[in-house]
């Protein structure tokens, strides 16, 4: 099961990169973000690099319409009372709707958390809202909840509320 989850995460991340490069009729984006994370009764902060692509079923990427997207996040979580940093890699499949400058969306996600001595995988989902006041800049807030399982079979929830600023191209 661990190999299947690793393969799925790698495939979705590769598709995200491909969608980013090929989204001529949509938008590609890269950004940075931070958020509050709760993991197995620990809390702290997560810092992220995010990249992805979105396709809008409308006249152009700035018109109203249905949105489909892929997004990959590479991050690091710094939890209180935990000495090791937790490295986070996740991939999201998004679906939503854009109205004027606001896009509201939901997503399914696959995630990997790891340190030097620990690794866990999980599936989950969440929702987000994005405001794009200018052609190339957007602000995003989202919430994600993932049911994780580590190598020893221990299960826990990884919940994170994040905010991003992204550059669209």
Task: Explain what this protein looks like in three dimensions.
With 169 residues, this protein is mainly beta. The chain has one helix spanning 2-22, and strands at residues 26-39, 42-57, 65-79, 86-99, 102-114, 119-131, 137-150, 155-168. An eight-stranded antiparallel β-barrel has the order 1-2-3-4-5-6-7-8. The protein is elongated, with a radius of gyration of 16 Å. The N and C termini lie far apart (37 Å). Residues 20-24 have low confidence and may be disordered.
Task: Give a brief rundown of this model.
This protein has 169 residues and is mostly beta strands.
Question: How many structural domains?
Answer: 1
Mean pLDDT value: 87
CA radius of gyration is 16 Å
Note the quaternary state here. Answer: single chain
CATH fold group: Porin
Query: What structural class should be given to the helix and strand makeup?
Result: mainly beta
